[in-house]
Amino acid sequence: NAGVMQNPRHLVRRRGQEARLRCSPMKGHSHVYWYRQLPEEGLKFMVYLQKENIIDESGMPKERFSAEFPKEGPSILRIQQVVRGDSAAYFCASSFQGYTEAFFGQGTRLTVV
Amino acid sequence: GQQLNQSPQSMFIQEGEDVSMNCTSSSIFNTWLWYKQDPGEGPVLLIALYKAGELTSNGRLTAQFGITRKDSFLNISASIPSDVGIYFCAGQLGTGANNLFFGTGTRLTVIP
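Above: the input entities. Below: the structure tokens describing the complete assembly.
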């Protein structure tokens, strides 16, 4: 039973480009959470999605960031017009129900040059 | 947002020594969790605590949920090289991983 799969593991983008990060939850999980980890810091919640719905986006920056979790396929975190401050590790987690344990993926390390 | 302070920030210990780290907050949490993050990996849950005063063990790990619900500690006994990594506490309000607030981490180095 594969765990949470994130790709790519590493992503380099120039300032102004778009970054697309993908997350495939564990089999049978329909709840997905995205977190951001800046260097030397803890993880900070960004957005919580269930299939086709955004449940909680209280941690999402108001501009340039968006997330989706379509009926078919992985969840996508999209960052438009990236800036240097977007450089971070982005982690996805999934859970079976909203109140059950969430399991984290290995993360995508985004570097903006 | 919620602020969780972990101490120490980093530790260098000899293999076989015991380790203690703690986490404090100005806010009350319903649940405290401890995670370990290996280099280049995501956090893995070690221990979850659900009641004030609760003391829980998982092998060589022991964690306690503070009586005030604003703090928690993690102890590792008889450390081994594979204990190396970053340990994060997380406080949870209600249920759901969208209500997890992570500490700043304690980086542990074990010297063989």
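Note for the figure: The two ends of chain B are 39 Å apart (CA to CA).
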